[in-house]
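Exercise: predict the fold of this chain.
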Amino acid sequence: MDNSKFKATKRAGIFGILGNVFLLIIKAIVGFASKSQAMIADSVNSAGDIFASLMTFIGNKISSVPHDDDHNFGHGKAEYIFSMFISLSMIVAAGKLFYDSIYTLINGSEIIFSWFLVSVCIITIITKLFLYLYTKHQQKKYNSILLKANMKDHRNDCFVTTFTLISVLLSLKGITWFDSIVGLGISIWIFYTGITIFIESYNVLMDISVDKETTDKITTIIKKHKEVKEIINIASVPTGSKYMIFITFSVDGNMKTFDSHHLADVIELEISKLDNIYTVIAHVEPV
C-alpha cells in the first residue's frame, strides 16, 4: 500500500472512531430514556460502526507493511481479512436488531416522544453525511475495500437515521408501531450490506481472477505488438486491491532470444501501468 493511501485510510479510521463514539453516547442515552426501539437499534449500529472503524485502522496498518522475505507480495490481503471482520460484525448486529424489533412489534412499543430524539437524529444525519462524503472521496482516489466498507456504512446510516427521525415524528401522533418497523428495516439493511462486503472480501481471499475489463485492456496491450503470434494464457492472483498478472504468448521461433525477452519486458511495463496491477510476469513461447 502506498504511503498516501495508508495515511488517507488511517485518517478515515480515526474520524470514524471519534464520530461514532460521540454518536453512540448520545443515541444510547436518548434511546433508552425515550424507549425508542429505532434509536436503540441506531445506537447498536453505532457500536458496530466503532468496531468497523477500529478494524479499518488496524487492517490499514497491517496492509501498509511492505513486502518482506516471508510475504513476498506484501500484506495487502490484510485489507480483505479485516473488511471480512467488519462484515461479520454487521451480520451479527443485524440479527440481534431484527429479533428485538420483532419482539417490540408483537408486544408493543413504549416509545416516549422527545425533541431530544429529533435533535439526535439531525446531528447523526449531519455527522454521517460528512463522514460519508469524506470517505467516498478517499475511496475513489485510492480504491481501498476498507474505505469502501466504511463509506457504505456511513451512507447506510444516513438513510437509517432518516427513517428513525420519521418514526420519532410519527410517535408524536401516537403512531408507535412504525418505530419497530424502522428497527426491522435497519436490521435488514445492515445484514445486506454485511453480506455484500463479506462476498467481496471472500472472493479476493479465495484468489478471484481480475475483472473482464482489465483482462480486455491487457489483451489489447499485447495484441498491439505485431511480433506476438498468439496469446496463450492470461492468469491473475490478487495481492490485495491489486493483481499479479501472469501472461504467456508466442512469437516466431526464429526471433532472437534477446529480442523476444525485450518484447516481454516492454509488455510487462505497459501492463503494469494499469491502476489495479501490482506486477506482471510474461513468458514467451517460440513457434
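Check your answer against the key: Helices lie at 3-34, 37-63, 78-107, 115-142, 145-171, 177-205, 212-223, 257-272.
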